[in-house]
Write a structure and sequence with these properties.
The protein is mostly helical. It has twelve helices and two strands. The protein folds into two domains: about 45 residues; about 240 residues, Orthogonal Bundle (MetI-like fold), CATH 1.10.3720. A two-stranded antiparallel ribbon has the order 1-2. Helix 1 crosses helix 12, helix 4 packs across helix 6 and helix 5 packs across helix 6.
């Protein structure tokens, strides 16, 4: 009787878990279908190539311009700047927590880093306006510090908890036999970390980086508050920029329903969807390469 009960429970939970898995796929497919459906309405009026390569975003002008190249470049430069800051800092912190920090310090650092993820993005954006922006303006002799660098630093701060937590778990999961073998041939702790532990944990570290990229590229409120929102092609990190997410957040609440401008925002969201998908596919490619490397 107990055997039959266990078999029945296993079958029930198998169905439940399979249903939840397909439900997630259905939700993702529904979101994608909604974006594509509304984007098609926009591309009936504006050519896709003109939209992607257009140099000016001015949908409310007398002669509307729907060129999103400044938005793509702005999003890319802010995300890239954030990752330049967050990746070495995040991986270094994860390595320190996993390999160098004592148990007492580790028990303090890990909760503190995880608490950083709980800070609302609007609070980080506010700190960027009142603290970081004046500092950047003074150092760079600018009229204000609402620019790409400000946004990149704030996004790096927001991506750090994800990168550190996932990377630390990956480093911690490396078998002790790897470390012992390295120490056995006379390697130092630093050599072991650099040449054995980090390469062995590479799939998890890459996954952490890609999660950080997704966190940065999809952030809205912080970049809306801290980057200046100038829809121009930036020439450097000290220029004000307007990201794709900020554009959607600013304009969606005021745009007339079912107009070309309205559908243009869906088209931006579709491009952002594909950018995020591409980043995830690249990350998955390198993760699989490292897994095959370790399997050999």
């Amino acid at each position: 009787m107990r055997y039959r009960t266990r078999i029945s429970v296993d079958k029930i939970f198998k169905v439940v878990f399979k249903t939840t898995g397909f439900l997630v796929l259905a939700l993702l497919g529904g979101i994608f279908a909604m974006l594509v459906y509304n984007s098609i309405s926009f591309f009936l009026d504006i050519k896709p190539l003109d939209f992607i390569t257009g140099m000016e975003w001015a949908p409310t002008a007398k002669t509307p311009k729907y060129g999103m190249l400044p938005l793509i470049i702005s999003t890319t430069i802010v995300t890239f700047g954030a990752m330049i800051i967050a990746i070495p800092l995040g991986i270094g912190t994860a390595a320190f927590i996993s390999e160098y920090a004592g148990s007492r310090l580790k028990n303090i650092l890990k909760p503190a880093i995880e608490m950083l993820a709980a800070i609302p993005s609007v609070v980080i954006g506010f700190l960027g306006i009142v603290v970081l922006s004046p500092g950047i303006a003074n150092v760079a002799d600018l009229p204000n510090g609402l620019n790409a660098l400000n946004g990149a630093i704030l996004l790096a701060i927001m991506a750090l908890p994800t990168i550190i937590t996932v990377a630390e778990d990956a480093i911690h999961a490396v078998p002790n036999a790897y470390k012992e073998a390295s120490y056995g041939v006379g390697a130092t702790k630093w050599q072991t970390l650099r040449k054995v532990i980090i390469p062995a944990a590479a799939p998890g570290i890459i996954a952490a980086v890609m999660l950080g990229v997704g966190r940065a590229i999809g952030e809205t409120m912080t970049v809306l508050m801290a980057t200046g929102n100038a829809a121009l092609i930036p020439t450097g990190m000290f220029d004000s920029v307007k990201t794709m997410t900020a554009t959607i957040a600013i304009e969606m609440g005021e745009v007339p329903y079912q107009t070309t401008h309205y559908y243009a925002l869906y088209a931006i969201a579709t491009v952002l969807f594909f950018m995020t998908l591409f980043a995830n596919l690249v990350g998955e490619f390198f993760i699989n390469r490292f897994r095959k490397y370790h399997a050999v």
